[in-house]
Amino acid sequence: MNTDSATGRVPEGPTGRQIITFAPVDDATATRELRDVAGFDIGTPRGLDDPAAVATNDVYLDKLGIAIVDSAPEQLGALSRALGDSASPIIAVEPEVYVYPFDTIDAMDAPPTPMADDADTDSDDDEVDAAETYVDTDTYAWGLKAVRAVPPILATAPWAGAGIRIAVLDTGIDLGHPDFAGRVLASQSFIPGAAVQDGHSHGTHCAGTAAGPKSPPGTQRRYGVAHGSRLLIGKVLSDQGSGTSGQILAGIQWAVEQGAHVISMSLGSRVAVGQTYYTYYEQAATAALNAGALIVAAAGNDGWSPVGAPANSPSVLAVAALDQALQRAPFSCVALNGNGGEIDIAAPGVATYSSIPVAKGSYGFKSGTSMATPHVAGVAATLARKTGLRSRALWQELVRTAVPLPQSAQEVGAGLAVVPTRRRPVWDYQPMPWRPGPIIDPGPLEPRPLPSARR
């Protein structure tokens, strides 16, 4: 399926295909149900032998218990009737939808932020002065200062995410960028006919914010939060900036199979007021959590509008964007829908400096909840390294250690995500009680209703 329109505009709405979510059953039972109910002959259960085939073929994602099919009207009717059959393992039949990046300013058009001297006068790393305006310096991007990933805070927070794998599902990455030499552990394209190489710039920018190097060889300004972590790159958006929810699901399964600890997704689609989450995203997010991976996703850039999908899923951490004064960016979506549509946490997302493909200038500025999300992914990696926490426990600690902001939780959630410091040593860690139930060890997918990761 070609996800790019002839006009160059990112398509929106349903693609015409369907995504089928199954209750916990073995793979043979799921694929047999597809054949018996609607005549889909997917064959033996398979995952991602041909990753790009998810865009054009009927595919069963065996680690998620989800099928993506191109259905005729009569097949869709048969699937819908199966939902009312208590004996059927099918729990949801929902449309595949187009997705796009959640950034607002192109790297080549964004004005640079004002520069400041490198002198750092902050002495209290337990509070944030919400009246302070952060600026870039010659040695670091303002977002790193805001999340406490640069000196003098770094002297008391040396964890850089070493040993942690951050999966960035986006437009790919510039594999020839010198800042990522030896940093990408694995990469895979889910876009038919397209290599992982980033022809857009969004993916390279997000990967850089999450895990750019401590000392970039091409610039003196550091921009990566978790510079000790390693990257897994899944190209799920085309070079024109579009993809489908089915390709996102395939990317999630791949990231889980690659051992990701944090999955960063600066993308999604709009939802209406009152619209609930997609069951397939929630099932995929739950599967990721059960495998030890936390999904962090952008809330969306439609201003005072509901959090987009997949960030509106209860088991996906939704990220809002902040400006240089730590105020909610006007474009950042808010919590208008419940049942998963809350904002969980916030991070820098206005005029953020990071890497872009060498052919486009190597470095540039972007704005969006897309840019806030990899800041949180990087913070999560440093916290995972320090505490050893994973999955739901890592989520809870991210929220617990966030710095409260003057705005409401509807706008910024628990507040500003920040890297850990020695003032909260590992042995002093006291986990918050998980609600609605205890932390779940990795295991089979849970039946609906799926557990909520919200507070």
From TrEMBL:
Stretches of the chain forming a coiled coil according to its record: none
Family as reported in the entry's similarity comment: Belongs to the peptidase S8 family.
Keyword Hydrolase: yes
Residue numbers annotated as active site: 170 (charge relay system), 202 (charge relay system), 370 (charge relay system)
GO molecular function terms attached to this record: serine-type endopeptidase activity
UniProt name for this protein: S8 family serine peptidase
Family matches, as Gene3D superfamilies: Peptidase S8/S53 domain
Annotated segments matching region Disordered: 201-221
Domain annotation Peptidase S8/S53: ranges: 161-415
Key words of the record: Hydrolase, Protease, Serine protease
GO biological process per UniProt: proteolysis
Short name of one Pfam family: Peptidase_S8
Organism expressing this protein natively: Agromyces mariniharenae
